[in-house]
Design brief:
The complex is a heterodimer. Chain A is of the alpha+beta class. Chain A is built from 15 helices and twelve strands. In chain A, strand 2 and strand 3 form a beta hairpin. In chain A, helix 2 packs antiparallel against helix 11 and helix 2 runs antiparallel to helix 14. Helices cover 16% and strands 48% of the residues of chain B. The chains are: A alpha+beta, B alpha+beta.
Amino acid sequence: MTQFLWKGIIRDKRRSLLPCIVVAIGVFFLVFLHGLIGGMENNMISMTANFETGHLKIMTRAYSENEEQKPLDLALLDIDLLLSDLKKEYPEVDWNPRVSFGGLLDIPDSTGETLAQGPVSGMAYNLLSAESHEAKRMGLEKALVSGRLIRRPMEVLISADFAERFKVQPEDTLTFFGSTMYGSMTFTNLSVAGIVRFGTAALDRGAIILDLQDARQLLDMENAASEVLGFLPQELYNDKQAESIKTAFNNQHNDSMDEYAPVMLQLADQNFMREMLDYTSSVTTIMIFLLILVLSIVLWNTGILGGIRRYNEFGVRLALGEEKKHIYRSLLTESFFIGIIGSCIGTLLGLCLSFYISKYGIDYGPMMENISMMIDPVIRSQITPAMYVIGFIPGVLSMLTGTALAGIGIYKRKTATLFKELEG
Amino acid sequence: MKKLVSVFLALLYILTANAQDPVKILDEVDKNLSADSRILDSKMIVYGKRNDRTMTAHSITMGDKKAFTEYLSPARDKGTKMLKLDKELWMYSPSTDRTIMISGHMLRQSLMGSDLSYEDMMEDRKLNELYKAVISGEETLDNRACYVMQLTAKVPDVAYYSMKLWVDKERLIPLRQELFGKSGQLLKHITLSDIKRIDNRWFPMKMNYKDVLKDGKGTDWIIQSIQFDQPIPKHVFSKASLKQ
């Protein structure tokens, strides 16, 4: 029977070609969009995690309540002790102390007096330690427009827009001035090592990057840090793992009434990331549902057209004594095969395009010029094992649904009038 | 009858209050606070959330346009100098050997982490030149009878649009100031105490500045010694003096 149906599909192309194309197109879009949405989600998660939230973040309670102000005076103290405890308790996580600060960058003229000044938002990472992965994580090498990365103390990386606005070049010496953790005024001369462009307006406007030790010295933050960011193995965010570490850590420090006691947050707790993750998950589900619905309607109509074309064939089969339910079942089996073929073609095409976009990406940087979101302006598809199978569910299901609806007509045929119809 | 007495008393109060000329009172306040020149050593205690910080400084001012301050302690701030020349403020830091101009919105930032802004420190003009005053009532503050005065800016370039002043009736020196923004929001209050008689004037030797937008107990500015109307060489108020 299977062989008979299979031969029918292959030999009678009018029976299988159109439904097959419809299913393939639908599955292609589903697979491609799944990869693209996954890529966008991954892009946002990794940019947000790398620059702002980590997969886990530790701050003092007081700091976390005023986090948007980046209040240095509420920073974590005795960081060495905290880090050694964290490494002992959670060795699988890569813990990184960071300092965020603000101030002014003063550009001198040839006589050393103020030529121009601009506000900057400073970020300090552990860049000079051999064990640190921070430079790679932040993509500094890739973001470098001119000059080089920080190799020596008291060097700074300047954001491209700031450098352009104030005509700053690598090797220039600028003066940073701001406030220390304790409110004193602080001044230091910094040598521009390089100029970086991240492609994100929020960073390119006025960010400067320093080595952590330099920032600590500059801001009077010995053995202190604004926050400690934790990254899970392979830099992949795992919501459940992050939640279990967060709960265990916070349970240890829950009893303390000290407003400077450490508190841990996971990525999903910050920057509306929970909402974002839920939203993309909902979008994927809705997309699959809509695809099944639309394809079913199209394939229903295709099935009706096929049914009309094969009206005589069904009549003859019924006249020869074949049962209605047998014909109906054979139609469904035939649809199942067509669904599988269409899904295979759609998945293959969707994967090909996704592989291409995962390699070369889509650059939508020009559209992001005035947007302050933490997103890499080049979107790349994310290839996941789910993409190999996800298209088969709506592909086969819609084909079966369409045929099941169209095939109901078989049950409306009356044996008594069959011969009259056939004679006609 | 009771109503009549109440109306009479209210009228009497208003007439008595208005009998005082607010411009004259403010003029007397200015005479106490302003001088042709001042040389002072001061201590600033900043009460932070986690710890307190004390800074000492030596300052020289001439009229309301020129001022020079050198920070003497703590070690981290020692040698930092500030020079005010009319509306410009220059800072010198020995660690960078740079003279930096502070301008624009930076002037509204906190001075050395204190509750004072650079603008607060720079503003030395007479109250009568900047504000229109009315007497809104009388109150007792720290057992001293005070006029309560409402000041509203009459020039555009003031740090605070309006002010409420409690002026000691006898010594004509403010004991408390509330500083408001144009929106009417209270931004800071200053409590002036330890009033001393120096060279025929009353002067507050201790001022507590409290930025209401900041946590903590505010900042105490304590004058350790002060001399008025002393001759000051002109070269003090030059950018060259910052590097000396």
